[in-house]
Amino acid sequence: MKEYPTSIFGKSGFDALYEYGSSEGTKLNSDELNRSARHYLNDLEPVFLEMKKIVVGQENVISHLVTALISGGHVLLEGVPGIAKTLTVHTLSRVLDCSFTRIQFTPDLLPADIIGTKIFDRSESGFKTFRGPVFHQFILADEINRAPPKVQSALLEAMQEMQVTIQGETIRLEKPFFVMATQNPLESEGTYPLPDAQVDRFMFKILMDYPSCSEELDILNRYTGDEMPVPDAVLSVEKINELQVFARKIHIEQSILEYVVRLTDATRHPEQFGIDLGDCIEWGASPRASVWLVLGSKAHALLEGRGYVIPEDVIAVAHAVLRHRILISYEGLSRGIRPDDVIDRMLGTVEIP
């Protein structure tokens, strides 16, 4: 197998190999975990290379999508129209050789259009189950906020339970099951904003921004010619499932777990950490945020070629995990405070182990 750099982000993760090990047994286990992490990183490197064939720029978005996939979470992708949200998601599914479907959410959509239904089959004198598009491995829920809450719930229940019930028949979904929902932040007319409790089911909320001028020029050169780039499938479904299992085995020290808890608690009680925000926070992050911070930091460590977590891994995923779980009060909104501003204050104040 071709050898790739230790870290796809250009940093070596082995300088502090034993920094977080307290016993010889832990050190030996760290050696094994690091060897496995490097092996899996070699499998993942071609994924990023193939993505770059199609998607110009957006490296942070791509790495967060892969991190969420490895963690077993789902992603809410937000950005203005025309910046390649759909292209990025579709390309990732093709590179990973997974079944893919795109669901365009509209106001007239019904739950049966998502999960399927049962129809009477006269030839067999019984009801036959017709499965909906949710029975794919990669789901692109395009403009999820344009469908009514009942339809949104049909998808979100599948995300949470990894199963679908159609008129009393419960069917397990095939792994990996990865939902990437997009929403347009510019329009509010004719939309049904996701309730905060449902938004919380997404592991990450990723903000997708405009490309730079040089990246946009590259887009023009790449997509206005007579040949269109085509990605290759470089990672199998079996390998993705294997990656998800291994990611949970990555070592994380108790001190870093305590750091995660402090970060999450700081979104609820900032004054206890010396952060003066007045009454700008209506609600802080739930314990689900702590769970995703840990799983996300483990997946990020894997992408760095390490079998152990360091605080920088937690910091790398903190904004994507927390930004949609912090509810800014009316006073905070009137002062122009955004969730990302609050997270910056937390990361700059809460003591790092």
Structure description:
The relative contact order is 0.16. With 353 residues, the protein is an alpha/beta fold. Strand 6 (163-166) and strand 7 (169-172) form a beta hairpin. Helix 1 (24-54) crosses helix 3 and helix 9 packs across helix 10. It has 13 helices and eleven strands. The strands form four sheets. A five-stranded parallel beta sheet has the order 2-5-8-1-9. It has a two-stranded antiparallel sheet with strand order 3-4. The protein has a two-stranded antiparallel ribbon with strand order 6-7. It is globular and about 70 Å long.
CATH topology: Rossmann fold
Number of helices: 13
CATH homologous superfamily - what is it?
Answer: P-loop containing nucleotide triphosphate hydrolases
Q: How confident is the prediction overall: mean pLDDT?
A: 82
Q: Overall 3D geometry?
A: globular
Please provide a brief summary of the model.
The chain has 353 residues and is α/β, with parallel strands linked by helices. The protein has 13 helices and eleven strands.
What tags apply to this protein structure?
single chain; 353 residues; alpha/beta; Rossmann fold; 5-stranded parallel beta sheet; two-stranded antiparallel sheet; 13 helices; globular
Describe how the helices and strands are arranged.
Blueprint: H1 24-54, H2 59-71, E1 75-78, H3 85-95, E2 100-104, H4 111-115, E3 116-121, E4 126-131, E5 138-142, H5 149-161, E6 163-166, E7 169-172, E8 178-183, H6 196-199, E9 204-207, H7 213-223, H8 237-247, H9 254-268, E10 281-283, H10 287-303, H11 311-322, E11 327-328, H12 330-334, H13 339-349
Parallel strand pairs: 1-8, 1-9, 2-5, 5-8
Antiparallel strand pairs: 3-4, 6-7, 10-11
Helix pairs in contact: 1-3, 2-10, 9-10, 10-11, 11-13
